Amino acid sequence: MVRVLKAVVPVLALVAVAAGCSSSEGRDAERLTAQRENYCTQLGAWQKARNAAGTDTPKSGYDDVGAVAQDAFLAMRPLRDEPVGGGRTLAEATVAAMNNRDSEAEGRVVQYCGDVGFETLTR
Length: 123
What we know:
Oligomer: single chain
Number of strands: 2
Number of domains: 1
Shape: globular
Order of helices and strands: HHEEHH
Strand content: under 5%
């Protein structure tokens, strides 16, 4: 009986540790999914505000678009190092799309949202 207990206790401890890791990984995946959804939501809001402002934007219209862009930048921060292709990170492509009106970069961040399952949140 003592021998069985000596063998069972370490196995149970290992199972408990492994279960804890699995639970932590699940929470990490959920957090990553929520961060991606938030980024794609904010990106879509920026696209909508930019398109609504048009090309002849009065000062107040620019301020509104700038505020929405700031929200997208904040949402991008935890994801900034994720690759989006072309040797760019999500941060680099987001900055290029929003600050430089780089349509290729915007296409990359929209594709990123599609690839992570949130294509309906962008334009």
